Amino acid sequence: MRCIAIFLLLWASAPLAQQYPARPVKIMAGASPGGGIDIISRLLADKFAERFKQPFVVENRPGASNTLAADFTARAAPDGHTLMVATNTGQAIAPHLIKLGFDAQKDIQPVGLVVVVPNVVVVNTGVPARTLDELLALLKARPNEYRFASVGVGSTQHIAAELFMRRSQRRSGPPSSPTSPRSSNRGFRASR
Predict the structure, then answer these.
(1) pLDDT confidence of residue 134
(2) Which of 1, 11, 112, 133 sits at 20 to 30 Å (Cα–Cα) from 183?
(3) Which pLDDT band, with edges at 50, 70 and 90, does 13 fall under?
(4) In this predicted structure, what is the pLDDT of residue 189?
(5) 12 pLDDT more than 80
């Protein structure tokens, strides 16, 4: 909540030439309704609407590692009436992996940090490891028997899991997809 308060304070204190907002504001969310980005976007929209006495409407544009919402935001009029709740996947990772229709360094501008979400390691209850040390010992004893699942290749979860595997000096092989049968049995999941 402290990050949101600081963000609102900085935004509210900025000198503006005219009354802001002059009309409803879109908050772009690069994920499906009901997910973390959507929830954060809706919490912000409620606070902003209360503060500025103007509707702030969340518009979900999921896909392409959050870059569809970023592309829409980059192409919007630069008048502050289109905002975006961004992720490090869409803004820091995707530009290095896929060709974008916008320049993530020039066409969009971060305004403030809203929330920090840690990555955690979660194992299926059938995996005989209850601590990270036990998991590392198991992975070392049974190389290439376990795989991980993430929300997708190139996501922060995927990169974190690959880094975990490298630091544990074990190759992971191809990741399981979130919906494959392998992701729900005999595996561990790197999740956000």
Answers:
(1) 93
(2) 133
(3) very low
(4) 47
(5) no
Extract the tokens encoding 55.
């509707």
Cut 0.90: pTM above it = no
Q: Does domain 24-116 have CATH number 3.40.1110.10?
A: no
Distance linking the first and last C-alpha atoms of the chain: 19
Residue type, 17: A
- CATH 3.40.190.150 segments of the chain: 24-116
Half-sphere exposure (Cβ direction) of 13: Cα atoms closer than 13 Å: 6
Task: Report the distance separating Cα 76 and Cα 100, nearest Å.
Answer: 16
Percent of the chain with pLDDT over 70: 79
DSSP conformation letters of 22-76: SS-EEEEESS-TTSHHHHHHHHHHHHHHHHHTS-EEEEE---GGGHHHHHHHHHS
Q: Which long-range contacts (CB under 8 A, 24 or more apart) does 115-120 make?
A: 115/3, 115/4, 115/40, 116/3, 117/36, 117/192, 118/192, 119/156, 119/157, 119/160, 119/190, 119/191, 119/192, 120/190, 120/191, 120/192
